[in-house]
Amino acid sequence: MNACILGIGWITVDGLGTGRGGEAFRLTCGSLPSLKRTLFFDDPHPRFGRLDPYTKLGLGAVSLALRDAGLDQWSEKRPFGLVAATETGCMGTDLAYFKTVVPDGGSMASPNLFAYTLPGCMLGEASIHYGLTGPAFVVSSACGDRLDGVRSALDLLRWGFCDTVVAGWCDPYVAADACAGEATPGAVFLVLRSAPDGPVSAENGQIRWGGEPVADISAFAESARMRPSNRCSVIGV
After folding, report:
1. Helix (H, G, I), strand (E, B) or coil at 190
2. pLDDT at position 175, please?
3. What does the alpha-carbon distance between residue 104 and residue 191 come to, in Å, rounded to a whole number?
4. What structural domains and CATH numbers belong to the chain?
């Protein structure tokens, strides 16, 4: 399956960026920056302050990718797909919620935390804000290359479920282990559209960019940022 990259957006320890923005992309260790509504939205977002860290991170990166693609403004709902790969998802929120459940027999359980105790809640927030009505789901991506969301997105395009997908990876924190070696939190999303001669393809589950195999989400993001000439024009989209 081939596709074109219409836009790319990311949030890492080093900051925020978009494919056309010229910012350097680096996936490094440390703490993510504080995320505020004004970084992503011109109009007020009534719920942004109440969102959990996972949802803020994913919604922010999706917003940057759609902005980079010129698709952040809409008047009618759009059948775009939305796929996120994650290792930790909203686990931090789940733990915080159960800390409010245990005391007093659950009588003080937090309804605000409860609203974000599923990883798909982030996709719901993004779909509502940007009018996306296509398939939306989260893929478990433990100890891997973090490209499972992109692979699933290419499958959606191949099978004709939609012709445009916002896909990527989102982890507010990543536990250091023998596979990753170090904790590198962040989120990277790409806007993909079906294209018979696009530079992104999947062969036997392997992602290829411009004919070359992609090692992981970091290499993919850096390649897409450095080679904008291979990306589909957004004029007339």
Report:
1. strand
2. 57
3. 46
4. 2-230 (3.40.47.10)
